User: What shape does this take?
Amino acid sequence: MRNEDYEMEIVGMGKGELAEMYAPDLSPHAALNRLSRWIDYNPQLSEALRQTGYRRHARRFSPRQVELIFRFLGEP
Assistant: This one.
């Protein structure tokens, strides 16, 4: 899936993989915690993800969920 609004290809990916893209300077665990906090602290993003069936403990983001994260947080 390629959206013209983004430079990166929007594909499903593991949570840790995406988290490390946003925080390459942190350990994988710390990067995942940071991404989770960003999601929790952004009510609009949290609600949009919830409407896609997002579960906090899921290990992967769907392409739609990745697109929403890019929209609300910007591309990594």
Q: What stands out?
A: The chain is about 55% helix and 5% strand. Residues 13-68 form one domain. The beta strands are 13-14, 60-61. The radius of gyration is 12 Å.
